[in-house]
Amino acid sequence: MSSELFKTIVITGASSGFGSATAKKFAEHGWRVVAVARRFERLQALQQEIGIERCEILQVDVCVQNDIAKLAGFIKDKQLNIDVLLNNAGLALGLDSADKADLQDWKTMIDTNISGLVNVTRTLLPAMVAAKSGHVINIGSIAGTYAYPGGNAYGATKAFVSQFSLNLRADLAGTGVRVTNIEPGLAETEFSIVRFDGDKEKADSVYQGVHPLTAEDIAESVYWSANQPAHVNVNRIELMPTCQSFAPLSISKN
Ligand code: NDP
Ligand code: 8X3
What we know:
globular; alpha/beta; binds 2-hydroxyethylsulfonic acid; 7-stranded parallel β-sheet; single chain; 8 helices
C-alpha cells in the first residue's frame, strides 16, 4: 500500500471538471479527499465512484462565510491534517466587452474567484502553519497573464490569484508550507457551459475543431506539484493545449 495512504487533499469545486478529475487522481494514489462544492448530488456521485473510505464530502459555497467555517469545523472534527488545499472553485461569466458586460456577473466572479479563494485560504492556513507542512495549490489561468477581448473581470480575478500566490510564498517562507499557482489555458470542462449561461451549443463550439486540454491534464499537474520532495516548491505552472497560442497585439486603424 502506498506510503501516501493517510495524506489528505481538500478540493474546492470538486463537483466537476478539474476538481473532480483531481479528486479521482489523488484517491487512485491512496490519498483521502475532502471534496466540496455547492451541488451535493454531484459530490455524492463522486464519493460513490471513489469509495466512501477515501472521500469525505461537504456542501460548501465558497462565497458563504458560514460554509467555510463549517468546512474548517469538519476538518477539525475529523482530525484531518491538510496536506494539500486545492483552491479550484471558480468560474467565468460572459464574454461581452467591458462596456456591455453584466456588472452582477463581474461581482460574482470577484466573490468566487477572489473573495472565496482568499477566505478559504485564510481560514485553513493556520492549521497548516501550525503543522509546519501543507501545500496551497491555486488554480489560476493564462487569462491572468494574457489579455483577450471579453476576458476583462475574469482575467483580472486570475491575475489576483497569481500575485496572491507569490505573496503567500513570501509570507510562508520558513514555515514548511508550499504554494503553487497552476495556470491552464483552454480546457474542456463545464467551464464554457457556465460562461455562456447553460448554452450548450455555444459552449461546444468553443472546443470544435481543436484539441483542448482535459481535466485529467490539469489533475496530472496538480499531482506532480504536490508530489515533489518537501524541499521543492513549484511556484507556477502555465500550460496550454498545443493548438493554442498568442494573438498579435492589435492596432485599430481609422
Ligand atoms: P467547471 O465548471 O467544470 O468546474 C467549476 C467548479 O467550481 C465546479 O465544481 C463548481 O461546483 C465550483 N464552484 C463554482 N462556484 C462555486 C462556489 N461559489 N462555491 C463552491 N464551488 C463553486 O470548470 P473547470 O473545472 O474548468 O474550472 C475549475 C477552475 O479552473 C476554475 O477556477 C476556472 O476558472 C479555472 N480554469 C478553467 C479553465 C478552462 O478552460 N476550463 C482554464 C483555466 C482555469 P458547484 O457548481 O457544484 O458549486
Ligand atoms: C480559462 C482559460 O483562455 O478561456 O481560464 O480564459 S481561457
